[in-house]
């Protein structure tokens, strides 16, 4: 396969297979810690609507991110600052956090005009017992559940059974488009999306 060298030889890569949709399986050669090498020589993968490369990786991260592992930030949450989250809480809204790992597929366009033929990318998530209980209690109490971002919505829909969100680790590859009926939330906050 094709061979590539990055960062003056800090990282070498060989394409060992080409799979569906043109994706590649790559074998890396390096000395040291892979993540540290990526931090040193890599660039932040940005959606097409952010046109200026960012020098500070923290600018392209939500203020509430806590677990490394995502390929990209869940962009719907980028608007929130600690002050905004504090103001939301002061208005009586409860904020609950789930862990999700946005995958490379977030940048993948829909390639078929027939949406039923599109294979949606898969993303890992973790919904804790405590957060699932809080969401379920709010729903039972007649409060609104509002998801921040379409990836969060996919997690909440994937964990929703018999009127409740079930906690756990998993992956979601659901593709939400009309006439799908959303069951787990009453609203969605999202932002810049390509068609």
What does this molecule look like?
With 195 residues, the protein is of the alpha+beta class. It has four helices and ten strands. It has helices spanning 34-41, 82-90, 129-140, 150-158; strands spanning 3-6, 11-18, 24-30, 99-101, 123-127, 146-148, 160-161, 164-165, 168-172, 187-189. The strands form four sheets. The protein has a three-stranded antiparallel β-sheet with strand order 1-2-3, with helices on one face. Strands 4-5-9 form a three-stranded antiparallel β-sheet. The chain has a two-stranded parallel sheet with strand order 6-10. The longest helix has 12 residues, at 129-140. The chain is globular. The mean pLDDT is 82.
Protein topology:
Layout lengths: L2 E4 L4 E8 L5 E7 L3 H8 L40 H9 L8 E3 L21 E5 L1 H12 L5 E3 L1 H9 L1 E2 L2 E2 L2 E5 L14 E3 L6
Parallel strand pairs: 6-10
Antiparallel strand pairs: 1-2, 2-3, 4-5, 5-9, 7-8
């Amino acid at each position: 396969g094709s061979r590539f060298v990055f960062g003056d030889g800090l990282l070498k890569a060989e394409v060992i297979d080409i799979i569906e949709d043109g994706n590649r399986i790559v074998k890396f050669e390096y000395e040291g810690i892979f993540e540290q090498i990526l931090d040193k020589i890599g660039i932040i993968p940005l959606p097409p609507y952010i046109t200026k490369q960012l020098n500070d990786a923290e600018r392209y991260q939500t203020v509430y991110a806590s677990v490394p592992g995502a390929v990209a930030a869940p962009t719907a949450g980028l608007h929130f600052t600690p002050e905004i989250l504090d103001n939301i809480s002061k208005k009586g809204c409860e904020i609950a956090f789930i862990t999700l790992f946005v995958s490379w597929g977030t940048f993948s366009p829909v390639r078929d005009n027939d949406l039923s033929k599109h294979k949606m990318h898969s993303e890992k998530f973790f919904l804790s017992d405590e957060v699932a209980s809080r969401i379920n209690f709010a729903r039972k109490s007649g409060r609104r559940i509002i998801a921040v971002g379409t990836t969060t919505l996919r997690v909440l829909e994937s964990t929703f059974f018999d009127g409740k969100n079930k906690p756990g680790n998993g992956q979601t590859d659901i593709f939400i488009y009309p006439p799908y009926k959303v069951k787990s939330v009453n609203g969605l906050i999202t932002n810049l999306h390509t068609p």
